Amino acid sequence: MSEIKGQQDFTTDASQYNATDFQIQQALRKINTAEPVRVVSVQPGAVGPVGMVSVQPLVNLVTGAGDGMAQSTLYQLPYLRIQGGENAVIVDPKPGDIGLAVYAMRDTETVKANRDGNAANPGSARMYSKGDGFYLGGFLNATPKRYVMVDDTGITLDDGQGGKLELKGGKLTITAPAGIESTSPTEVHHTPSLVFGDGEGAVATMNADMRINGSVESSGDQVAGSISQMQHTHTGVQTGSGNTGKPQ
How many whole angstroms separate alpha carbon 101 and alpha carbon 126? Predict the structure, then answer.
């Protein structure tokens, strides 16, 4: 049977002062403030109420003999979401994320259960307990693959798969290797110059009738119903004031 080790060391009983100091230190250790943790599991809110996480504290407890002891998993910690009213940025935590658990000074179980924003009596007389933790994410994590970045150069949105939207210097640049799809009853562009294609051989296709309120200029041929604008001929050609036949 292994020996059970506490936090006393060989100096604890050396004097009354040491014994009293040990008692004070033990009492202070019951006051939980904040500590780094790793997310173990998530009950995500997604497009819904903010969810909960279970976390593993990352700083071990240490016995009086200097041996490390892993802490127990903490369950049902509400996590932070950037939200104001019905407006939110939804980025739920993922298992493996590193963040900070902060602990309330009073029992918060009733407030967590109600979720209505109203004041409520504490569920017990406990204080500074790890049972009243909240999770703040985003500390000591790895490089993201998908991100929204706002810096002195502008705004960048990257989907991690080659798609990127950049708004910098007043210019919007969209990179979409898989294409752009838009569904809208109307689409209006207030653009003095509109360019389609990327050099020779590029094709722009429109599956709709077209109405242009202005002139049309083309450096190449135009074909309507297999009839060339530049190469077509007319039937029924004769001298005089008569009209030609239809183009062919």
Answer: 18
